[in-house]
Amino acid sequence: MSWRRVTEEHISKAELRLTDIAEAVQTDWIQLAAQLGVGPSEVSDIQADFDADVERALVMLHLWVQSSGRRATGNDLEMALNVIGRPDVIRRCMYNVKEVTDVNEKAVAKGYLDKSTSPY
Known about the structure:
By secondary structure, the chain is of the alpha+beta class. The protein has helices at residues 18-25, 29-36, 40-49, 53-68, 74-83, 87-93, 103-117, and strands spanning 2-5, 11-16, 94-99. It has a three-stranded antiparallel beta sheet with strand order 1-2-3. The chain starts with a strand and ends with a helix. The relative contact order is 0.22.
């Protein structure tokens, strides 16, 4: 799940499919891996074991989710994609976009968004 601030009062959430992300990322998967904290040895193993970039990207994303657990969020993925110059990927791969209306969920999302955009 990825939260996105539309305006100060409106926060939306969307779902992401790793298969869609992998398809969109293609050859940029190695740069994305570095931003997500997937190490060079894991990248080398993936390159040795898989031929197609889409497969490599998907395996890398699954490895990131598995190793990061609850810390693997759509917002972190979006930030990493922005760093490598691929903000188009998230926009293209979001689905089931809904406005957050629940007060508690909105508070959690706002806290996360505030933290993720903080310069500290």
